[in-house]
Amino acid sequence: MYRKLVVPLLAAASAAQSAELSGRVYDASNATVPQAQVVLRSRDTSTEFKTVSGPAGEYRLAGLPGGSYDLEVLMPGFARYQRRGIKLTDSSVTSMSTVLNLGEVQETLQVTAPGQARPQQPAPQRILVGGHVRPVRILKQVKSIYPETARTEGREGNVVLRAVIGVDGTIVNVSVLPGADADLAAAAEEAVRQWVYEPTLLNGKPVETVTTVEINFRLGAV
């Protein structure tokens, strides 16, 4: 009889000493986000505790050993949320809500013209947007014209631009990231400023979206 009583008592004591982390996942409009993946990773043992937010964005991770943790929340269409160095003590109940920001959109185009090509670098992967965010859709895309001076001088290159798509779908701001050829950058910027998108909708409402556009200028057979 003594052995039958000892095990339950030890299990109960262990459960009473475990920690709990709970909260809700929100987007930038303060609406809750269901079906978001919540990952809590122990900094001491690298053990991962995972769950998915419920219909009202709620999540709960129980039975956690005391220690230091990193929290990560993932949802398609949103930027990765990370919070490091969360301290949990035995028997503690911690509430921690998170706010997910919109992910970025990326466009990659290539402009070609007759000429002799030089070595080129691979273009980055396109970023996909989904989930509770309706992805932007381009309605008007003006193509860049290869600058004649750059073409005759055999200049190639990649131009990366950071643009803001306004709530009406027009480009409200464009900046060229450093390292681009000046003539190619001017041609790329002139074209992108004329682009028009169907605005991004967050929970049915238009919002501004940051987009990264890469235009690759290449010489060769057209």
Structural description of this entry:
The chain is mainly β and 222 residues long. It has helices spanning 2-17, 148-152, 182-192; strands at residues 19-27, 37-42, 48-52, 58-64, 67-74, 81-88, 93-95, 98-100, 105-113, 133-134, 137-140, 157-165, 171-176, 196-198, 200-202, 205-207, 209-219. It folds into 2 domains: 2-100, Immunoglobulins (Immunoglobulin-like, Sandwich), CATH 2.60.40; 105-219, 2-Layer Sandwich (TolA/TonB C-terminal domain). The strands form 5 sheets. Strands 1, 4, 7 and 8 form a 4-stranded mixed beta sheet that branches. The protein has a 4-stranded antiparallel beta sheet with strand order 3-2-5-6, with no helix packed on it. A 4-stranded mixed beta sheet has the order 9-17-12-13, covered by helices on one side. The longest helix is centred in the N-terminal third of the chain and has 16 residues, at 2-17. Residues 1-15 and 123-131 have low confidence and may be disordered.
Percent strand equals 35-45%
The proportion of residues forming helix, as a percent range, comes to 10-25%
The number of domains? 2
Could you give the distance between the termini?
87 Å
Q: Which geometry do the CA atoms define?
A: elongated
Low-confidence runs? 1-15, 123-131
Name of the CATH superfamily of the largest domain: TonB
Cα-based radius of gyration, to the nearest Å: 25 Å
State the secondary-structure class. Answer: mainly beta
Named CATH topology of the largest domain: TolA/TonB C-terminal domain
The average pLDDT score comes to 83
- Give the CATH class of the largest domain: Alpha Beta
Specify the number of helices.
Answer: 3
Q: Quick one: how many beta strands?
A: 17
The CATH architecture of the largest domain can be named as 2-Layer Sandwich
Taking the sheet with the most strands, its summary is: 4 strands, mixed
Helices and strands, in N-to-C order? HEEEEEEEEEEEHEEHEEEE
